[in-house]
């Protein structure tokens, strides 16, 4: 089943049922515990309806319209589209969660410095959305990477501790590089909401200039933007896919760029493990679409460094790296978990 509405700028937005095997279409909409999660990105908004057992039953996608009004409309339209399509009254929702880039105060539901979505000054997003949806619908807001690490913990279970992810990092490789941290079962936001900003650690002293004003930041070597700069796509396809295909075909320049990139990502993994000793580092973001070739390259880079260090070898860094599962919107799923209060 699919319903189509219009985005705020007239662009199409779609609400679809989740694929078979991901949903339980017979789930009673009257049962408690349903939630909506909205993952707001710089170009698109992806929302999901989660059933009480944590399964995605419907999804909604729309273009991002920058600014507070566009953000509010995206959240409320997605929520209404999902609940109407599933025959679920708004008042039956345990909550609506919103994952948004920028500095987020989860207590007040305020977001600011979210330049990618056109929100610079403090905006009380939770209060505004609740006013539109109705006071009986709780709305909670979280930083998008914090939401993503919750979604990753939900979607990538720990085989040693099923259902009890305690220490995990979600490493996002997109336009920039950053991580969400789940430590001791709790989100680690940091005193100034800056925990996980590893993209601005110096990786190459005196290296490439970064927009943050520093030189040699990890973001300049381990992001999707870094691949765009080092190996531009000639045909419009994503540069990471083009690079890894060329490397697999034996192009020596592509092999060199790929291995340098894998080394940089491996350095980010090493930082996360050595500072937080997380059980797993789940790699997501646009570059993760490369899939197993990316994972193999990063693990090979980590193994190469471990071969020269008994200490690193003892930490089994390569074994801790996982890919975010393809086709699972971990950011939106995590936001839905935030919406129903599964956050500490």
How is the secondary structure organized here?
Blueprint: E1 2-6, E2 12-17, E3 34-40, E4 44-50, E5 56-63, H1 68-85, E6 93-100, E7 103-105, E8 110-112, E9 123-124, H2 125-133, E10 139-143, H3 144-155, E11 168-173, E12 177-183, E13 186-187, H4 219-222, H5 224-230, H6 239-248, H7 252-276, E14 280-284, H8 292-306, H9 310-315, H10 317-320, E15 321-323, H11 330-339
Parallel strand pairs: 3-6, 6-10, 11-14, 14-15
Antiparallel strand pairs: 1-2, 2-5, 3-4, 4-5, 7-8, 8-9, 11-12, 12-13
Helix pairs in contact: 1-2, 3-11, 6-7, 7-8
Describe this structure in words.
This protein has helices at residues 68-85, 125-133, 144-155, 219-222, 224-230, 239-248, 252-276, 292-306, 310-315, 317-320, 330-339, and strands at 2-6, 12-17, 34-40, 44-50, 56-63, 93-100, 103-105, 110-112, 123-124, 139-143, 168-173, 177-183, 186-187, 280-284, 321-323. 35% of the residues lie in helices and 22% in strands. Residues 1-10 and 20-26 have low confidence and may be disordered. Helix 1 packs across helix 2, helix 6 crosses helix 7 (252-276) and helix 7 (252-276) crosses helix 8. The protein has a 7-stranded mixed sheet. A 5-stranded mixed sheet has the order 13-12-11-14-15, with helices on both faces. The protein folds into 2 domains: 2-148 and 329-339, Nucleotidyltransferase, domain 5 (2-Layer Sandwich); 158-323, Nucleotidyltransferase, domain 5, CATH 3.30.420.40. The chain is α/β, with parallel strands linked by helices and 344 residues long. 44% of the residues are buried.
